[in-house]
Queue: 2 jobs
Job 1
Amino acid sequence: AQTVTQSQPEMSVQEAETVTLSCTYDTSESDYYLFWYKQPPSRQMILVIRQEAYKQQNATENRFSVNFQKAAKSFSLKISDSQLGDAAMYFCAYRILYNNNDMRFGAGTRLTVKP
Amino acid sequence: DADVTQTPRNRITKTGKRIMLECSQTKGHDRMYWYRQDPGLGLRLIYYSFDVKDINKGEISDGYSVSRQAQAKFSLSLESAIPNQTALYFCATSGRLASSASNTGELFFGEGSRLTVL
């Protein structure tokens, strides 16, 4: 079964600084998606960024970028110029393309942004 | 209005009571999912459905049942609630993967239903 590991339960960053959240996953599949979701106190699950496994180029969305290392099964999220609104729980997730299309989530990393 | 709507948003109930959480969507997606979120465990799949006639168990289906009343509606029931079912529950939808170049593969979530079983 696919598993997703986020080894940092909590992280803290100073406003305007850069922070990297770690994620590793385990799979025998070659085609899949990877995601980072943000969950603010409102508890809404908000997609931050996505990556298709067949793409070698790392995805970027404004201040958010990923470091995707397929061979190492690693998918870290970098947040640049951190803002107070970035404070939230961040979930790394993996989804296979076939069969049940189940999305598997890590346990989450709680990010605190200090002013 | 939200594309994926869950009701109720919050519910407190007692052990042994029957509870139904409802989900409706306007995204036109075939696939609907119920997840449960617990601190330190992330989100775990309870049940999923690919269409009205297709219901499948997820990782943690014991103690739960579901009904897909229509393409747009997918409800989760706890027949006899117990305290360890206290959690945040999410409904999610998606289009079919690998069948559309425009499909992003993401899940679209409702706002969550927080259930407390006393």
Job 2
Amino acid sequence: DGGITQSPKYLFRKEGQNVTLSCEQNLNHDAMYWYRQDPGQGLRLIYYSQIVNDFQKGDIAEGYSVSREKKESFPLTVTSAQKNPTAFYLCASSPTGSEAFFGQGTRLTVV
Amino acid sequence: GQQVMQIPQYQHVQEGEDFTTYCNSSTTLSNIQWYKQRPGGHPVFLIQLVKSGEVKKQKRLTFQFGEAKKNSSLHITATQTTDVGTYFCAGHAGGTSYGKLTFGQGTILTVHP
């Protein structure tokens, strides 16, 4: 069953903790993206990767880190440096020059 | 950096009325993509436009890419309750069809039966 999978669906984090959001795709796409969605602010790009072992900062990278050790995987770590991490996080993948396919998202809440 | 703006932010219509959302980029785009996100869901791709002045139709939806490749519009004719959701435009900066994909803020469409 092909697609892009994000886990977990819901995540709770205590202040000061790092948490890692998982994103896996079996579509053989080169590009992968992480977006943050807040009410009324659309999708803001955190990081993106065009190829294994390479990634670029997006518009709001501060407080986040990523890795791209495998083509299929692009995990996002929300660090304690991110002061307002409560949001809906969306991962996407894309073949070059074509549309993005999104996962179901992870809703992160700081408790 | 590149900015993509969408207006309006919200639109309430009666079922059967038309709806249009506009997208404007601060820089020339190599392509424009449109997505729809249903409440509680994730964005789903609708269409991609690449050529200057291009117009594409999908049933009641008409998409247009501006001559300067800096703006776009989505028009829905005779809205239905199934059209409810947030509509996003997104694009790659001019000169490349890969890399950074920037989204607009979206237009939230509500359709009253």
